Amino acid sequence: MPGISVARFYDELADDYHLVYEDWNASVRRQGDALHALIGQDRARVLDCSCGIGTQAIGLALRGHRVIGTDLSPRAAARAAREAAHRNLTLRTAAADMRRLPFPDGRFDTVVCADNSLPHLLTEEDVVTALAEMRRVLHPTGLLLVSTRPYDDLLRARPASTPPQVHRPADCADARERAVTFQLWHWHDDGEHYDVEHFQLLPADGEWRVEARRTTYWALGRDRLIGLAADAGFVGLEWRTPQETGFFQPLLVARVGEK
C-alpha cells in the first residue's frame, strides 16, 4: 500500500525534517504570513491535513488561527505538537489519512494541504477521495488551499535530481550544525509518476552521516488537479503563483460548492 511507505518515509524523516530548510523558523513565519493573507480573516478554524512537523500549522497559529494538524506520520504529527508547545502555542495534532479525516461535517473554515503532500496519492480515485473529504469537513463557505510542485514545468523537463539545499540558519555560526539535502528522481514509464531518493548529509562527530529515504509521487499537472477538485465538488478553482502569494509553491485555491 502506498500509504504505508509514505508514513514510514515521514516517520523516519521527522527528527531531521527541519534540516530540509535553510532556516526552518524563518520558513514557518514566511509561509504562515502568506497563507494568512489568502485566508483573509482572523481566528479561522483551520485544518492542516498534511501538517508534517508543523511548518504551515505553526505559522498559522502564530497568526492567531485555531489550527488542528493531522498527518499520515504519527512521529511528524507528534513533533508538530511539541514544536508548537515550545512556542507557547496551542496545536492539537493526530495521525490521520487525508482520505479518512476524523472530523464532523462542516467543522473548518479553511483546509490546508501544502508542501506537495497530495501527490503522494497515486491514483485519480484516491485524490478525489481525499479532496472530497476535505470538502466534507469544510463549512459551506469554506476555503481550500493546496500546494504542489510546479508540475507542468517539471513534466516538460523531467529532471533527474534537485539542487543541494544547505541548512544554514541565520543564528547558527557553527559549521558543524549545517546539513545538506538533495533528491534523485526516477521517472516511471508512464511519464507521470516518479520515485524519489531523498538524501541528507548530517554532521556526526566531525564526519558526515548519510540518511537515504525513498517514496513515490504523482506529477499532477494544473489542469488535471483542477479537474479532480471539480469532481470532488469544489468551485472557484484557480491557481496562484508564488510571485502572487509569497508562498514557495503554486497554490490551488478553491471554495466549497453545492452539488
From TrEMBL:
MF annotations from Gene Ontology: methyltransferase activity
Enzyme class: transferase
EC id: 2.1.1.-
Keyword Zinc: no
CDD domains for the chain: AdoMet_MTases
Record keywords: Methyltransferase, Transferase
Pfam families, alphabetized: Methyltransf_25
Residues of the Methyltransferase domain: 46-142
GO terms under biological process: methylation
InterPro entries: Methyltransf_25, SAM-dependent_MTases_sf
Gene3D superfamilies found in the cross-reference section: Vaccinia Virus protein VP39 (3.40.50.150)
Protein name: Class I SAM-dependent methyltransferase
Originating species: Streptomyces pulveraceus
